[in-house]
Amino acid sequence: MTGRQPEPVSGKVSDRTSENILLEVTDLTVRLSSGVPAVDRVSFRIRRGECLALVGESGCGKTLTALSLLHSVPVEVGESRAASLKLAGREISNPPGSELREIRGGRISMIFQDPRAALDPLFTVGDQMVETLRSHLPLSRSRAVQQALSALEEAGIAECRRVFRSYPHQLSGGQCQRATIALALSTGPELLIADEPTTALDVTVQRQILDLLIGLGRKKGLAVLLITHNLSVVAQLADRVLIMYAGQIVESAQLEEIFSGALHPYTRALLDCLPALDQPPAEPASIPGTVPQPGEWPSGCRFRPRCAFAAPGCEKEQALEAFGRESGRLARCWRSAGIDFTGSGGGAP
Ligand SMILES: Nc1ncnc2c1ncn2[C@@H]1O[C@H](COP(=O)(O)OP(=O)(O)O)[C@@H](O)[C@H]1O
Ligand SMILES: [Mg+2]
């Protein structure tokens, strides 16, 4: 027994530095076109200048959450709705078209897993950058060209003039991702969303791209929402972590709290999949079982069928509850108060 006692919280998490909040999301839900929710009343905040990681296996609703922040969930996929969505204190849950254009790619930029898909194959990198810059900022063409070249240089591209004149297919995956990072940052956004930004890249360049992304974010004082299925990606980069499972946030904590003692068995199970530092590299481990699809979520705790700690009581709906007054730490597991999950794996045997 640890003696930690949960303190129920209402929708808003107390925060003494609320003036530093850049984005505040309250009760965001995404319904698929079938009417079934795929993201279920998600609430979180991003502070200015912080790197917040959103972590969970594939199919948990991370990408739909991110797209919702830009009102970019494709209509044929579904519809997002939030009780409130505030950017720098201003409500943007239902912005007029002109404001939405200013937000998308201006105040909030997003980069994706596949950098080639983010670039138009019919135009050179330079033409795309110049057009994006001029659609958001009052720049002459020559000024926009200069700004694009310096953004490419800042993104670690040595031959920035060649890359500027290249079509996406003429570049390596790593160069393409550097170019999309340059494109995303060139308009001076306040928030950068990076959705699995290195998953499609060679292992050798993954680390470089992550370091670049987070380094540029820090240098420019940007808030970064880093989305990944792999906790090891966030290990040295994020300030805070949100763990997502089956459409819900199940844990929210500072990075070091996650690695020193996860509160939710799902977080524990993700940690157990990380390779041990003293072991030779092996096939990546995975949690037994699969994430239930939207519409097939079990009642009560959605991780219950895969959880080694499941017990009578887990079939009841679990609230996201606060642990400790200071850190804003949250977990959605009634057993977190009484069980030390750090000893053994949280995944079912
Ligand atoms: N384009 C789509 N068409 C149909 N269903 C989708 C689509 N995108 C997402 N979904 C549904 O929403 C769930 C969550 O998707 P997503 O947000 O992409 O998860 P993640 O990014 O965590 O892998 C998926 O498992 C799927 O059931
Ligand atoms: Mg995704």
UniProtKB/TrEMBL annotation:
Record's GO cellular component terms: plasma membrane
Transmembrane segments: none
Listed GO MF terms: ATP binding; ATP hydrolysis activity
Listed Gene3D superfamilies: P-loop containing nucleotide triphosphate hydrolases (3.40.50.300)
Keywords from the UniProt entry: ATP-binding, Cell membrane, Membrane, Nucleotide-binding, Transport
A Gene Ontology BP annotation from the UniProt entry: peptide transport
Protein's cellular compartments: Cell membrane
Membrane-related topology note: Peripheral membrane protein
Stretches assigned to the ABC transporter domain: 23-271
SMART domains, A to Z: AAA
A Pfam family hit: oligo_HPY
InterPro entries: AAA+_ATPase, ABC_Ni/Peptide_Import, ABC_transporter-like_ATP-bd, ABC_transporter-like_CS, Oligopep_ABC_C, P-loop_NTPase
Keyword RNA-binding: no
PROSITE patterns: ABC_TRANSPORTER_1 (PS00211), ABC_TRANSPORTER_2 (PS50893)
Family label: Belongs to the ABC transporter superfamily.
Protein name: ABC transporter domain-containing protein
Species lineage: Bacteria, Candidatus Glassiibacteriota
